[in-house]
Structure formats: C-alpha cells, structure tokens
Design brief:
This protein has one domain (about 10-245): Alpha-Beta Complex (Creatine Amidinohydrolase), CATH 3.90.230. Helix 1 (about 10-30) runs antiparallel to helix 2 (about 40-50) and helix 3 (about 120-135) packs antiparallel against helix 4 (about 145-160). About 30% of the residues lie in helices and about 25% in strands. It is an alpha+beta fold. A hairpin with a 6-residue loop joins strand 7 (about 170) and strand 8. The protein has four helices and 15 strands. The longest helix is centred in the first third of the chain and has 24 residues, at about 10-30.
C-alpha cells in the first residue's frame, strides 16, 4: 500500500500526541534510577498517558503486554517491562507510543542509568542521537527514504559502531505502523519520495558489536546476537513544504538518573 500523506491539520494532530509523548519520555528518563524496575516505569508511563487523555499505543498491540518497551543492555528493542531492578551503568532504551484522538506518535530514548557510565556506552548512546539528528536533517521534500538510511549508516560508520539492517523505522499516523518502511541503511536518492505530509518514525538502532539479532522465546524481545550492548533513538517527524517538522523533540539523555 502506498503511503498516504497527511493534511496539515492531521500533522498537527500527530504533533499533539507527540507533545504528550515527549513529556512522558522526560518523566521516564528522570525515573530510570538504580533500584527502579521497568515494570514501575511502565506504570508511570501508562498513568501519564491516560492522565493526558491518551492511550498507550503499544499496550495490546499484537498482544504486547506493556505500555512501553523497556530494553536494557543487549536487549535492543521490544523489551517487555518486568521486575528486574535497574543497576548503575545499565544502558536502557525506552520506547513509547501515544495515541491521542486517534492519532499516533512514536519515539524512543536511551539512558545510562545512574551516571555517565562507561566511555564506550556513552559513545554508543551519543552516536545514536547524532545519527537520529543526521537522519532528520536528511528529510527534505523531494528527497527519498534512502537519504535517511544513508545518513544513519554514514554517522554510525564514522563512529565505528554497527547498524542493524533488519531493524527499521516506519510511517506513523492513524496506525502505529504505516508505509513506508524506513531502513537505517540505504543509498541516497533511492526509495520512496519524501513528499509533504508524509509522517515518519525514524529510529536508528546501533550496537558496539555485530549488527545481528535474535528474538527470544517470548516472541518480542530482540537481543544482540553476541551479547554486546545496543541503543535506540527515535523521533516522529513530518515532511512539510518548508522542510522537516519534528513532532517529538528530544535532547541528550545519557547520564540521567
């Protein structure tokens, strides 16, 4: 199915969901301290989303049991919240979806729990944030989806970290996952055109080790195949006539908690 560009009022509606989501992520980053559990973070997110009039987009999606995805260390994405207590130095990815008035926004941040962490971990988290910024900067009307993947791939390559080719971003809006697919590798000038009204969830996922994954028996949890740490940064953006509009603004989060 071809991507359906949104009208300006529809982009605004996704932006309102994104504003709620941004606040929830800021709350989660502050709460991701040593001793907390990801199940507690899940409850915090669900309450904050519902208090804002929204619903957690992930909860019940294809049977997913959580309101957020919480993925520490070698768990790349789709981590199911549980009672494991966070410890200082954990590299924790927090992925949140918010549905508000029928419109969906999706974003993720990675936090190093309890402090600055190891130098390699800081490098990984900061590279993912830079890759996300580069990918967003590549979103120009008349460009192509391949420009996004090429930007992520170049940033990761320059930093000496791996990109998971099998883990991708996507369109978002009326549904959590819409066309087009947004790979984190690619060639500039290839793929679907970036037209005004297209709304995308761009999400670099990087690792210190081999860029290959395995899925756990729960059917959700995606781990690095070699046990090395990974990170995830994501934003929802809209292509406009004037360039790109970020609907889930972000900032540095490494060292929070």
């Amino acid at each position: 199915m071809a991507p359906r560009p949104k009208q300006p009022a529809e982009v605004d509606a996704v932006g309102r969901a994104g504003a709620v989501l941004t606040g929830v992520l800021e709350t989660l980053v502050a709460a991701a301290a040593p001793g907390a559990t990801t199940l507690e973070l899940d409850a915090i997110a669900r309450t904050a989303i519902e208090d804002a009039g929204g619903t957690p987009s992930f909860r019940g999606y294809r049977g997913f049991p959580g309101s957020i995805c919480a993925s520490p260390n070698d768990l790349v994405v789709h981590g199911i919240p549980n009672r494991r207590r966070l410890v200082e130095g954990d590299v924790l990815s927090l992925d949140v979806g918010v549905t508000l008035d029928g419109w969906v926004a999706d974003a993720a941040r990675t936090v190093i729990v309890g402090g600055a962490g190891q130098a390699d971990d800081r490098h990984l988290v900061e590279t993912a944030e830079r890759a996300l910024a580069a990918a967003v900067a590549a979103c120009r009307p008349g460009g192509h989806v391949g420009d996004i993947g090429a930007a992520v791939q170049a940033c990761a390559g320059q930093a000496g970290v791996g990109v998971f080719p099998s883990l991708i971003g996507h369109g978002v809006g009326r549904a959590l996952h819409e066309e087009p697919a947004v790979p984190n590798v690619g060639r500039a000038g290839e793929g679907p055109e970036l037209v005004p009204g297209l709304v995308l969830a761009i999400e670099p996922m990087l690792t210190l080790g081999r860029p290959a994954v395995r899925t756990a028996g729960d059917g959700w949890s995606v781990f690095t195949i070699d046990g090395r740490r990974a990170t995830h940064a994501e934003a929802t953006v809209a292509i406009t006539d004037d360039g790109v509009r970020v609907l889930t603004p972000w900032g540095p989060v490494a060292g929070a908690g």
